[in-house]
Amino acid sequence: MILNISKIKTEALLLFCRDLINSYHNTQDEIDFGVDENLIKEFDKISEDMLKNINGVCFSNEYYLQNRTHYRPKAILKAYDNLNSILTKNLNENQEFNPSMLYFSMLAVWFKELEKESKSKEYIYFLIYPYYNVYDKLLVNMKNDKFKKINIQMIEIAEKTILNYNNSNIV
């Protein structure tokens, strides 16, 4: 069976981002940094929209686990584990992080900078999403310097992770 490695890695990245959103959605981390409540609500809305679109192109987690012995789901899970391993190496233990900026940056690097799946209709939402709006709000318009610094670190970690992920071999 021939597998499109780019599509496999893209789907694994989206699954990883979905899990990241679900793990940290509606937490109080931003409030701890004194982030404006309206901004938090806006990012919750963006995360919900991202989640909706990820769910529109990916199967449920149960599907991947139940079919983990089939070629495609097995490759996707392997790519997911690979991505998780690369990210774990890039995150320092007990490091403060902003999961929103991390997953936004990972998607931006994959879809915008590396132009992955640029000809794929199923991923059109991620190709045309205005990532710069998120960067403006979480960097340029952010008044809390500590939170801004964490967001910059998230961008750097995302870039390093996605570039390593792109160059990794999953098969």
Total discrete domains? 1
Roughly how many Å is the radius of gyration?
16 Å
| Oligomeric form | single chain
- DSSP strand count: 0
Strand content: under 5%
**Largest sheet, described in full?**
none
Which structural class is indicated by helix and strand composition?
mainly alpha
Describe this structure in words.
The protein has one domain (5-167). The chain has 9 helices and no strands. The protein has helices at residues 5-24, 29-32, 37-57, 61-66, 71-90, 99-113, 124-128, 131-140, 145-167. Helix 1 (5-24) packs antiparallel against helix 6 (99-113) and helix 6 crosses helix 9. The mean pLDDT is 90.
Strands, helices and their partners?
Elements: H1 5-24, H2 29-32, H3 37-57, H4 61-66, H5 71-90, H6 99-113, H7 124-128, H8 131-140, H9 145-167
Helix pairs in contact: 1-3, 1-5, 1-6, 5-9, 6-8, 6-9
In short:
This protein is mainly alpha-helical. It is 73% helix and 0% strand.
